[in-house]
Amino acid sequence: MHEYLIGIDGGGTRCRARLTTNEGRVIGQGLSGPANIQLGLDYSWRNISEAIDRALDQAGLDRHLFPRCRLGLGLAGVVTEADRQQVAAKAAAFHSVKVATDAHTACLGAFGGRDGAIFIGGTGSVGYAWLSGESHQVGGWGFTLGDEGSGATLGRQALRYALMARDGLIEGTALTERVNRFFTSAGIDLQTWLATARPTDFGTFAPDVMELAERGDPWALDILKINVGWLETYVRRLTRLGAPRVCLLGGVAPRYMPYLSEEALSLIADAQGDALDGALLMCTGLSEGQLPGGLDIPQLVN
Predict the structure, then answer these.
(1) pLDDT tens-digit profile of 95-125?
(2) Is 1 exposed, middle or buried (0-12, 13-18, 19+ CB in 10 A)?
(3) Smallest Cα–Cα separation from 193: which of 185, 184, 201, 181?
(4) What's the CATH number where 39 sits?
(5) What average pLDDT does the segment 7-19 reach?
(6) Which of 121, 144, 248, 258 has the most crowded CB, counting CB atoms within 10 A?
(7) pLDDT over threshold 90, residue 167
(8) Radius of gyration of the chain (CA)
(9) C-alpha span between 135 and 294 (Å, rounded)
(10) Does a structural domain hold residue 125?
(11) Which helix (H) or strand (E) holds 184?
(12) 254 and 234 co-located in one domain
């Protein structure tokens, strides 16, 4: 007999958990580190478990609750059916579990389970639409091949310009000076930093791009213009697929709003809920998830 629901939103920067009663009353929430499974399933699951434990602790409960709880997991890095099965196997203690991408649960939450599309621009980026019970993913190929409009991409481009300015290939600006100072003031060796840098590390410079673009810094504005162009391309593609509107989600994407064209602005909607709401909707069975390519994500009862 299930009496509780747990929704998980696991991204490349953090993992959030929300614990509710079967009637939907929130009784606990938890926060932990990254849960993108491409960072390693064991590593991600430790952070998922930590977020759940914190939600349980807030509610005055513990893991003995698991057999009475349905779990909905929206995780970055879920690409294949094998990914889903491996994640689901980690959740054998729960009454039931459903696994989907964090884009799917974010889209469900944004439109209350109804048709719509989202562009998530946080550390990484992806476009996603849920239309007539089918999923459509656009982009989401990761930092090496994609992540247009993401914080990591903004930061990487800022670092490129900083190095070009250091080498005398372009004129320096406040942006290039600030990024170069990050390394020189702390005595950080760039090659050593690059050897272990993750997308979140590159994303460190994204707030500098946003701030200095507002002040008119030419290189910051150039970076912003390129990424706003990509965002508008994603929005047009998602609406051509049939999405009535697109929600901009994540820590970066909504900050593009002042720079969007009138055409793009007319296609943007405010989100009704968040990815945790979507994960909870999914684990109730109200809306079934699908992986790109049409692979169903069935309910797995343990």
Answers:
(1) 999 999 888 999 999 999 899 999 999 888 9
(2) exposed
(3) 201
(4) 3.30.420.40
(5) 92
(6) 121
(7) yes
(8) 20
(9) 7
(10) no
(11) helix 174-184
(12) yes
Report the number of distinct structural domains present in the chain.
2
d(CA 223, CA 225): 6
- The distance between the two most distant Cα atoms of the chain, rounded to a whole number of Å, is 68
Owning domain of residue 107: 4-112+272-301
The pLDDT, as a whole number, for residue 286 is 58
Residue 166, Ramachandran bin (φ over 0: left; ψ between -120 and 50: alpha; else beta)? alpha
Side-chain half-sphere exposure of 263, counting CA atoms within 13 A: 8
Calpha distance 134→60 (Å, rounded): 39
Residues 220 and 288 in one domain: no
If DSSP codes are grouped into helix, strand and coil, which group holds residue 67? Answer: helix
- The neighbouring-strand residues paired with 32 are 15
Q: Within this chain, do residues 91 and 185 fall inside the same structural domain, yes or no?
A: no
**Could you tell me which of 302, 299, 301, 293 has the C-alpha nearest to residue 99?**
299
Say if CB 76 and CB 38 are below 8 A apart.
Answer: yes
Q: How many residues does the chain have?
A: 302
Residue 290, pLDDT above cutoff 60: no
For strands 268-269 and 246-249, give the pairing: parallel
Mean pLDDT of 30-56: 95
Tens-digit pLDDT profile for residues 234-266? 999 999 999 999 999 988 999 999 999 999 999
Q: Summarize the confidence of residues 29-51 as an average pLDDT.
A: 95
Two tokens, residue 50 = 């930590």
How far is Cα 224 from Cα 168, in angstroms, rounded to an integer? 22
Q: What residues does 130 pair with on adjacent strands? A: 116, 135
- Whether pTM > 0.90 for this model: the answer is no
Q: Find tokens 């909607």 and name the residue.
A: 269
Please tell me which residue, 121 or 295, carries the higher pLDDT value. Answer: 121
Q: Is residue 301 pLDDT above 70, yes or no?
A: no
